[in-house]
Design goal:
83% of the residues lie in helices and 0% in strands. It is mostly helical. The radius of gyration is 27 Å and the shape is elongated.
Length: 372
Amino acid sequence: MIGDLLLRVNKPNQAMEECTSAIAIDGRCVKAILLKARALIADGDMDAASIELNRAQELEPKNGEIADISATLEYCLDNDNNLALDAQEYEQAICCLKKIVETAHSLGATRQLAHGCSYLGIVLQRMKGHQDQCVEWHQRHSQLAEGLGDIEERCRALSNLSSSYILTNQARKAVEAQEEQLELIKETRTQKDLCRFYGNMSISYRSVQNFERAVECHQRSLQIAMDEQDAYLQCMSYHQLGKTYRAMEKLEYAANCHREGVKCAKKTKLDAEVCRELHELGCLQLMLGQDKEALRVFQEELAILDKFPDMKLEAANVRANIGLCHASTGEWEEAVECFDAHLQVATEQEDGEGQRQTNTNLEEAYRSMGEQ
């Protein structure tokens, strides 16, 4: 069926059109109805897919295997990015998916088998104490996707496999999976997708302390972001490059990256991104002994955070950093005022670590004031 071929090359809208034409000719064609449901799922229209699945079930009530597979895939796709199940629901989902994997295997339905393995891995990945098992299912999904010759499916499989390796502290294997995925992405994805992927690869390289390759990936990501004139992607690229330079103890390089990150973040008009870059820059300036510059940066960050009542603790933490800036320049009264403000909020929010650290800072401040 042409619709099946279109869906395999990631053209769900055109696949739906073909299926709709086929159904118009033969309204009882369950194969076309189920294919249309799959296309709707791929396009993210879960409600419409559910209607088609119910229609197929009415026409062929004994076709339970296909209906079960399609319904489960619908459920998993709908919850892929936001699974919030309790332990019993997770166990039920796993039992259901394993049954579907067995059924798909016995029917020789390779694509459904690949999807079943994928979602088993995803569910296990979200369950505490089951993360090791998710690697096995993602590996199986990857092998099946390769056999299908489906580049998009293979990319998804390698992405999930890489995530599972990171989750199970197998960073080197994660890098290998990402390198394999990169070759496929170059053929199929947009430049912005490639930019994000280089960013993810750089983080994996950084985690195995291959800083040279990490910086190379950051720079490629940044160049694409600049070519695309995407301020948000530029901000993300500068942010991660700065973190890598910080891990390399090249603090001046890191600070320069976050300065550029602040400029890009302001273009996005996203307060969260601006605050993040200001915070990183301020902390680096403190480490570099640039206390007055750090003070100005933290004050700018605080002015943004003070606009949001639910960011009270975050604002208090910045006040503590401002206190450290004052302490570094011998402005002890200003430092004590900041530390007191932070301690009050830390106590209200039951932030034990924050209370301990600020009490230490206050003791140091009072001692220094007494010596003057």
